[in-house]
């Protein structure tokens, strides 16, 4: 049985009327809006604004003062590159919590926000530059292999880095490695050198053992072994001595 033309026209008019009502409802300012994610990929967790990076070797103290009242005032020694959580600030001091749960105070000047900081190192000695210009080389400053770097800026062939005490400097970008294994090895190199400078050579040798077992193929292993006298500069093995000796 055929439908009459009049009935078809009536149905079409009703459908057009309904479609006109829907946009009107969507224009209601009180109606909730559906917000879609920008992409279907995984959502990156928000960076912790309280996370800080230790930029220089620092003593974690029980009280915010350089004048220790007792021998046990120092809670721990924090090395460059360690991450801590900022709890509060007082004048020039910050109270932080370490990754191991220890809490104490250290100078705020030894901290930097960790969010967005990229770490790197150099695997061979590298020249530095006062400006991103090949003619601005600084003959008085050279980066040792294994120096832990905090990347700040990049321009042309150069990268600006925080390389430790003093002002930031520029290095040729192709000299820098940001590979996780190289950065991890550089952290141990920094600690071994700190211990050696403070006449704790046996402890430095123990760090060398850890460096060799954790990153056996790292080019930084022989660098530290030579510095500690475990390896001759020509590649020959020196006679090891003391605990933590490396065969």
List the helices and strands and how they pair.
Elements: H1 5-26, E1 51-54, E2 58-61, E3 74-78, E4 83-90, E5 93-97, E6 103-107, E7 111-113, E8 118-122, E9 126-129, E10 137-143, E11 148-155, E12 158-162, E13 169-172, E14 176-177, H2 180-197, H3 201-214, H4 220-227
Antiparallel strand pairs: 1-4, 1-7, 2-3, 4-5, 5-6, 8-11, 8-14, 9-10, 11-12, 12-13
Helix pairs in contact: 2-3
Quick description:
Helices cover 25% and strands 28% of the residues. The protein has 247 residues and is an alpha+beta fold.
Core attributes:
14 strands; disordered C terminus; 5-stranded antiparallel beta sheet; SH3 type barrels; 247 residues; 25% helix; alpha+beta
First-to-last CA distance: 100 Å
CATH class annotation of the domain at 51-113:
Mainly Beta
Strand order of the largest sheet: 6-5-4-1-7
Named at the architecture level, the CATH assignment of the domain at 51-113 is Roll
Which whole number gives the mean pLDDT? 83
Strand content: 25-35%
Report the C-alpha radius of gyration, rounded.
30 Å
Structural class call reads alpha+beta
Helical stretch tally: 4
Instruction: Sketch the topology as an H/E string, one letter per element.
Output: HEEEEEEEEEEEEEEHHH
Q: How much helicity do the residues have?
A: 25-40%
Structure in words:
With 247 residues, the protein is α+β, with helices and mostly antiparallel strands. The chain has a five-stranded antiparallel beta sheet, with no helix packed on it. Strands 13-12-11-8-14 form a five-stranded antiparallel beta sheet. Strands 2-3 form a two-stranded antiparallel ribbon. A hairpin with a 2-residue loop joins strand 4 and strand 5.
């Amino acid at each position: 049985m055929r439908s009459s033309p009049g009935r078809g026209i009536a149905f079409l008019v009703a459908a057009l009327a309904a479609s006109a009502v829907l946009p009107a409802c969507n224009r209601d300012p009180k109606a909730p809006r559906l917000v879609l994610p920008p992409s279907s990929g995984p959502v990156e967790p928000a960076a912790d604004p309280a996370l800080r990076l230790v930029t220089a070797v620092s003593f974690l103290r029980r009280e915010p003062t350089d004048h220790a009242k007792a021998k046990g005032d120092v809670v721990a020694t924090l090395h460059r590159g360690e991450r801590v959580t900022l709890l509060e600030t007082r004048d020039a001091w910050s109270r932080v919590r370490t990754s191991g749960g220890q809490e104490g105070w250290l100078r705020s000047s030894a901290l930097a926000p960790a969010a967005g900081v990229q770490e790197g190192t150099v695997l061979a000695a590298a020249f530095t530059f006062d400006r991103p210009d090949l003619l601005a080389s600084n003959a008085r400053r050279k980066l040792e292999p294994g120096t832990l770097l905090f990347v700040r800026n990049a321009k042309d062939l150069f990268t600006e880095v925080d390389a430790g005490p003093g002002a930031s400097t520029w290095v040729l970008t192709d000299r820098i490695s940001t590979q996780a294994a190289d950065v991890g090895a550089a952290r141990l190199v920094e600690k071994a050198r700190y211990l050696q400078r403070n006449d704790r050579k046996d402890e430095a040798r123990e760090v060398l053992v850890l460096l060799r077992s954790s990153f056996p193929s790292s080019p930084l292993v022989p660098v530290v072994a030579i510095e500690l006298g475990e390896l001759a500069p020509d590649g020959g093995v020196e006679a090891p001595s003391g605990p933590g000796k490396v065969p």
